[in-house]
Fold this sequence. Notes:
The chain is of the alpha+beta class and 199 residues long. Helices cover 42% and strands 17% of the residues. Helix 3 (46-59) packs across helix 5 (109-115) and helix 9 packs across helix 10. The model has no long low-confidence stretch (mean pLDDT 93).
Amino acid sequence: MEEVEMLQIGETLISLDILEKQFICNLGKCKGACCIEGESGAPLLQEEVLEIEAVLDIIWDDLAPKAKEIIEKQGVAYVDAEGDLVTSIINGKACVFTYFEDDGTCKCAIEKAYNNGNSAFRKPSSCYLYPIRLKQYKHFMAVNYDTWDICKPALALGKQNGTPLYQFLKTPLIEKFGQDWYDELCLAAEAMKDHNSKK
């Protein structure tokens, strides 16, 4: 009998990769590559566009000249080839809200404003939850793990520390789905762990 590869909690359908993968972001290794690589910007909710527009004056000085030019021309977001609302990007790659530390690490100007106490908006939920990606369907929301080569150092660090992805992303998952949902996810992870240990 084929094993089920998805878990259902409420109206969410969760890939078992969320429970099985071990993952800790390793910024020292990847240098924030997820913010500057790819073919599209970070997925956005409509209300997040308004949040970003509201914080634009605060983060403006941290943005690159080319980023400012793009934002002035097309705004903070656009609809990509897949029909998704995403952050505007520079030269088909880097998010317009990135800035660089002296060591070359790419960071988010929106999150910097939040960390400095200048904004109540941390960053888009798709960034906060990454490498988890959400997709809303008619009757449920899919919660999937997004495989990307640039995250190999994060998988290695997660394995080294024995930290499952769902534990690494505990705070953003609770913020998105609530404590009860997360508690149920933890119970499912424990049950799956027990099941696998008895094989």
